[in-house]
Amino acid sequence: MNDPLDKLFENLNTSFDVEVPNEGHQKRFLDKLNNQNKEVLKKPSKLRTLWKPLMGIAATAAIILTVLLVNKPSESSYDLAAVSPELAKTESFFTVSIESEMKKLENVTDHDTQALVKDAMIQMSKLEMEYEKLKSDLRKSGDDKRVIYAMISNFQNRINILESTLKQIELVKQLKNNNNESNQTI
Fold it and tell me: For residues 154 and 131, is the Cβ–Cβ distance under 8 A?
């Protein structure tokens, strides 16, 4: 009996409530407990009754909003590719051609041709701004063929400017070479 718990219980032995409850106490206690449970189950709180319908409405709204946002094409991405697969190929062709011509222009640019290239870049910038307006018009017009034609013409104009600039640069270089040759022979 050296256990401290045993000693504690021995000391507290006189203070324990050892009286037996009245007859039927346990039954009355269980009846009260059951009645409280029934009242709680019968009467859901106002918060709980509002919570379920509101969650359903919120979930429905979230789904509808998600569908609308996912399916809505943005204005900046609405171009020829958005109209049809054939026009997507056409746009891709022109874009690749323009990029190719721009690389050629970068490779042949030197001090003597900077003014030509600068002028061409200004014209290209104007055509790019016009193309952005045409994209907006295409969205508003509902794929009007005239707007589509104007967009294709815009691509063609850009390529023509680049090709023309490349030809002018070549002429400038030829004239420069001819002048150098004639200066050397004199």
Answer: yes
